[in-house]
Amino acid sequence: MKESRASCPKYSVLQEIEYNKLNPLRILPTSMTRVEEDGVHGNDGVIGDIIHPIERGIIKDWDAMEDLWRYTFYTGLGWEPGNEGQLLVAEPLLTPKVSRERMVQTMFETFNVGGLYAVEQAVLSLYAVGRITGVVIDAGHGKIDIAPVWEGAIQHNAVKRFEISGQDLTDFLAKELARSQPDVKLDLATVEMLKEKYAAVAEDSSAYVATAEACPKIQHTLPDGQVISVGRERYDVGEALLRPSIFGIEEDGLAEQLLRSVSTCSPSENQRQLIENIVLCGGTSMIRGLDSRFQKEAVLVANPSVRPSLIKPPEYMPDNTLINSAWMGGAILAKVVFPQNQHITKAEYDEAGPPIVHRKCF
Amino acid sequence: MSWQSYIDDHLMYEISPGHSLAAAAIIGHNGSVWAQSENFPQLSPEEVDKLLNGFEENSPLAQNGLFLGGSKYMVLQGDPGIVIRGKKGPGGCTIRKTNSAFVIGIYDEPCTPGECNIAVEKLGEYLFEQGL
């Protein structure tokens, strides 16, 4: 019996996981550089800049993506050509049909996988916390998506994409730091690290306003010796999610968007259950203080008869469940789908072609 | 090929061990039943009417629910203009539109949505290519 792997192409990170372990075997950043054919070790053969084949959740550079997958399967996971395993792919929301079909085609024709199953990340994030109904806010690097899911089915007409995502927050922080300390030279990777270390969300909007007056500055020494001080900028970054208008983006904040998304779900009796079961997951959701502040804002905006609440992962799940919720769910689902032969087999693919993915993967 | 044999051999067959559709039918756009399995529910004229326009995105079926013989299905992601997929608890339905008919399959546990989709859509595609 071939082992299955869950693969989760995300905005900044590609994750592979072993069938029966519940932690990622390998987390690979989806950034690559082109090397000359002969350049194997070191930077000698590097040409050009860093490439990110995935933009905002959609694969843009298919050749690069293929190379990344090749590396992941054969080098990372240790598959042997001719003895490839089975794959469960966690797809981002709003993936175009063509993109989906192309992915399936690549997997079966280029990589000869033994079996394939594709599921949207939002549904998997819910499985990771043991549910099939709820609203998933997947806050990632390339995009933040709000998706209500009812009994395992995404309500596509209610799905909302939020304007700001992790990479926008990084850009934002870089601009703010450049403004307050123009002498310090920063590259985006460093800013990203600073964001992950220091970004926070104020307890409520008045606390945020107070940071304008007085905010302790933290001195951070960068690897190249420069010292940068991070003050109010750390709270600006967090606040951007709840009130994008601060940064000139004319959009409602995360809490309002969530409620708007749920209100387009029908029947309306379902809406209460959705609001009372929110999953806030993904890398960007780890910003300190976001969960409690989000819940406060949601309560303010929601109908008084409803109590918005965030779902906590069950105790038996590992600590990093919410960051990696989509493929945690994928790992759980893979154990059910593949043994029951609900996946797409090579034979079915050969018979029906790439469109089989729309029929079988549900 | 009689219409009934389409139902018996191409819709109500055993898709995988122990899995087959609960009911199936081929119904003309005007509501006439070309063939159906024994326990297929009777569709009302209004239900058939709603199907005619129900294949587009954000159709009234998605808002209010899809009704087949009085049973309510929640509309899921389909293929605009071609396929409607519905869900009702652990079961559901798939409807494939052809030039003059609807191929409808209704499934329940243990049959999976994917299996129902395959059976219905394969037959639907075939009929469509035959000009029906």
TrEMBL record, chain B:
Gene3D superfamilies: Dynein light chain 2a, cytoplasmic (3.30.450.30). Transmembrane segments: none annotated. CDD domains: PROF. Keywords: Actin-binding, Cytoplasm, Cytoskeleton. It comes from the Eukaryota. It is found in: Cytoplasm, Cytoskeleton. InterPro entries: PFN, PFN_euk, PFN_sf, Profilin_CS. GO terms for cellular component: cell cortex; cytoskeleton. The keyword Cytoplasm applies. One of its GO terms (molecular function) is actin monomer binding. Occurs in many kinds of cells as a complex with monomeric actin in a 1:1 ratio. Binds to actin and affects the structure of the cytoskeleton. At high concentrations, profilin prevents the polymerization of actin, whereas it enhances it at low concentrations. Belongs to the profilin family. This is Profilin.
